[in-house]
Design a protein that fits this description.
Order of helices and strands: HHEHEHEHEEHEHEHEHEEHHH
Helix content: 25-40%
Largest sheet: 10 strands, mixed
Bound molecules: glutamic acid
Distance between the termini: 68 Å
Shape: globular
Radius of gyration: 23 Å
Number of strands: 10
Structural class: alpha/beta
Number of helices: 12
Length: 325
């Protein structure tokens, strides 16, 4: 059916008039689009970012629509915030510190990411070093000469892998290093195309569960004097134990962990970040349901291991709650 031009014009004018007549309160409710840079689809950041997006959407006065981007993770995410391409991001607290201060990693030396404010810390991320049973790898030194996935491009995992190897006297050149995404690393471990892979991720991360279901992998410990030296040099690491059977038929192992945290772009309005933070803590139940690792988020511990100054919106929230002086 052909609609006469005049009729179309009238419809357009009516629509315009309706917009002009909208009460200002309704206009104010138009949602601001923001992006949350997360991590691996098979990791923990991604489901958590999805949960935060849903919580913020549901909350009465936050007025944002948050889209979730998957990425290599921590290093890439800090850079995305720095360039203004992401508004919120999940990342490791060690990487947030290096990024903000422009130290330790070549990605940030001379290129500090200053427009990034802390929002809250969430859960320990364990350096999971997963090796195939067939490789015979029992300790980090056994990685020498083997095919090893250091992590995805832009991950915090890669930085951790290099530091862990360094504390055991190994350089990147001592292994056949690969940088591929986490899901591909899991597939290649299961097929025996690589001997080992690093994953810094929360306990129960889908990618680790998956490799252990295959029955073909073991967890390689990061322990002893080498772990102590690592923690001495890079104080964001803490020593942790992975109890037996955390993953299918996995033996107890020592390793090291950093913390997962949330940051916001400094340019975001104080009010927006305040309301976003409040919405998450007002609906902790939904947040906790997103992943078993998410259960570590509590108001009382939300600033533990915070390595950078808070975003003013988060600062206001935690002061109001008496968590910060
Ligand atoms: N911590 C990881 C990294 O930055 C990402 C983990 C995840 O997505 O769960 O390499």
């Amino acid at each position: 059916m052909k609609i006469p031009r005049r009729a179309l014009c009238l419809v357009a004018i009516a629509a315009l008039a309706a917009t002009l007549l909208l009460p200002s309160s309704l206009l104010a409710q138009q949602r601001r689009l923001v992006t949350i840079a997360s991590g691996w689809v098979v990791g923990v950041y991604y489901p958590l970012a999805g949960a935060m997006s849903r919580i913020a959407y549901k909350a009465k006065d936050v007025n944002i629509r948050a889209t979730v981007e998957s990425s290599g993770a921590s290093v890439a995410n800090a850079q995305l915030v720095g360039s203004g391409d992401a508004d919120f991001a999940l990342l490791q607290n060690d990487i947030a510190y290096y990024a903000y201060n422009g130290v330790t990693l070549s990605a940030f030396q001379g290129k500090p990411v200053k427009n990034m404010g802390g929002v809250f810390t969430i859960y320990p991320e364990l350096v999971h070093v997963v090796a195939t049973k067939a490789s015979g790898i029992k300790g980090i030194r056994d990685l020498k000469g083997k095919k090893v996935v250091l992590g995805p491009q832009g991950s915090g995992t890669e930085a951790n892998a290099i530091q862990v190897m360094e504390s055991h006297g190994l350089k990147v050149g001592d292994v056949q290093a690969e940088r591929i995404d986490a899901a591909a690393a899991a597939d290649q471990l299961k097929d025996g195309r690589v001997d080992a892979a690093f994953f810094t991720t929360g306990v129960g991360s889908a990618v680790i569960v998956d490799t252990f279901i295959s029955g073909k992998t073991v967890l390689v410990p990061v322990a002893g004097s080498e772990a102590a030296a690592l923690i001495g040099k890079y104080p964001f690491y803490t020593a942790v134990k992975v109890p037996a059977n955390t993953y299918k038929d996995q033996a107890e192992a020592q390793t090291v962990a950093v913390m997962a945290m949330m940051v916001a772009r400094a340019e975001l309005p104080e009010d927006l970040v305040y309301k976003f933070t409040k919405a998450i803590f007002d609906d902790l139940k939904q947040f906790h349901e997103a992943h078993s690792a998410a259960k570590s988020l509590t108001l009382e511990t939300a600033l533990n291991g915070m390595p950078i100054p808070l975003h003013p919106g988060a600062d206001k929230f935690f002061k109001e709650k008496g968590v910060k002086k």
